[in-house]
Amino acid sequence: MIDKRLYFLKLARRTLAGEVLDAVLLRGLLSTPEEDLLPFCAGADLLREAHFGRTIHLCAIHNGKSGRCSEDCSFCSQSIRATTDAPVYPLQSVEELAAPGKRLEDTPVNRYSIVTSGRGLPPEETRRVAQALSQIDPVRLSTCASLGIIGKNQMEALKAAGVTRYHHNLETAASHFAAVCTTHTYEERLRTLQEARRAGLSLCCGGIFGLGESDDQILELALTLRKLRVDAVPVNFLTPIPGTVAAGLRHLTPLRCLKIIAFLRYALPDREIIVCGGRQHNLKELHPLIFYAGASGLMTGDYLTTAGRRLDNDLALLRDLGLTPRPGSYHNPLS
C-alpha cells in the first residue's frame, strides 16, 4: 500500500527537479479523497515554500467604475442580468482613483489594482486610469489594471504609465464558459491577454470556482493557464449573491476549496497563487489553511461589491502562522 504522505511529498520533489506533471497525473490529483487531503496539501505547501519561502504576496483592488455592465456573467452583481443593489457610478476622477493606492504605499501591500465594470473601458477612460496609476510610487507599490477587453494601444498606454501587470480572468474552462457568459467569447479574453503580454505587461489570470464546473474543467483551465504562462493566478470562490443568475449554486465546501488551491499549486508550481474573493464565505474555519494548501498570495481589503477582510486582520493572520508579507514590490520576476 502506498504511503500517501510520502507519495505527495515525492511528487512535489519531482516537480522541483523539473518534471512537468502531465494531464493524466493531474487529473488523478483532483480525485484525491478527502481523507488524504492533509498529505495532499503537504506536497503543495512544500512547493509554495520552495518557490516563495515564508513570505506572502499581498494585493488590493479599487472599484473605479461600478455597475450597469453590458455583460451577462452569471456570478456578477453588476451583470446586465442581475437585480442587485450593487453601487452604480461612472469612472472616478484621477484623484479618486489614485488616492487608495497612495494610502497603500506605506503598508506591506505589494500591488494596487484599479478595476472597472463593463465589457471594456473606452480609450479616453483608460488614459484616466493610466494617469492615476502613474502617480503611485513604483518603488513602494506595484500597479495593475483590470479594465476588461481592451486593445493594443490601451495596453501600451498603461505600460507607458508605469503599470506592470494586467488582470483579466478567464473565469472558467473554455468548455464551460457559455454556461457562465454569453455576451462575449473565450477567444476575446484570450486575445486580451495576448495584447497585454505583447505590451510588456505581466499577466494576472485565474478564475472563479463553484460555478458548476467539473473536475475535468478545472484541469482544462489549469492547463490553459500553464500554456499562457501567466504570472499570477487569482483564485476566487463563488459567493452566491441574491439577484444574480448564480445565486442558487452551492457546489463548494471548505475541503473542496483547499483541494482546488493545492491542485493549482501542483499544476503551476512556481506561479503566484493568490486567494481572492469568497475565501471567508467558503473556507469558513479552514480559512487559515489556504497557505498550507499552497497559496502564496492574498487579496486584502474589500472586493468589488462585497466586503473583504481588513488589512490589519490579514497581517495578524500571517503573524499567527509564522508568515510575513513579501518585502518590496519587486520581490521576484513573477511579481
From TrEMBL:
Annotated [4Fe-4S] cluster binding sites: 69, 73, 76
Example of a GO MF term: iron ion binding
Keywords, alphabetical: 2Fe-2S, 4Fe-4S, Biotin biosynthesis, Iron, Iron-sulfur, Metal-binding, S-adenosyl-L-methionine, Transferase
HAMAP family: BioB
Protein EC: 2.8.1.6
Function: Catalyzes the conversion of dethiobiotin (DTB) to biotin by the insertion of a sulfur atom into dethiobiotin via a radical-based mechanism.
Stretches assigned to the Radical SAM core domain: 51-279
Family of the protein in this entry: Belongs to the radical SAM superfamily. Biotin synthase family.
Source species, domain of life: Bacteria
The protein's name in its UniProt record: Biotin synthase
Alphabetized InterPro entries for the sequence: Aldolase_TIM, BATS_dom, Biotin_synth/BioAB, Biotin_synthase, Elp3/MiaA/NifB-like_rSAM, rSAM, rSAM_sf
Listed GO biological process terms: biotin biosynthetic process
Organism (species): Desulfoglaeba alkanexedens ALDC
Gene: bioB
Reactions accelerated catalytically: (4R,5S)-dethiobiotin + (sulfur carrier)-SH + 2 reduced [2Fe-2S]-[ferredoxin] + 2 S-adenosyl-L-methionine = (sulfur carrier)-H + biotin + 2 5'-deoxyadenosine + 2 L-methionine + 2 oxidized [2Fe-2S]-[ferredoxin]
Pathway: Cofactor biosynthesis; biotin biosynthesis; biotin from 7,8-diaminononanoate: step 2/2
Cofactor note: Binds 1 [4Fe-4S] cluster. The cluster is coordinated with 3 cysteines and an exchangeable S-adenosyl-L-methionine. Binds 1 [2Fe-2S] cluster. The cluster is coordinated with 3 cysteines and 1 arginine.
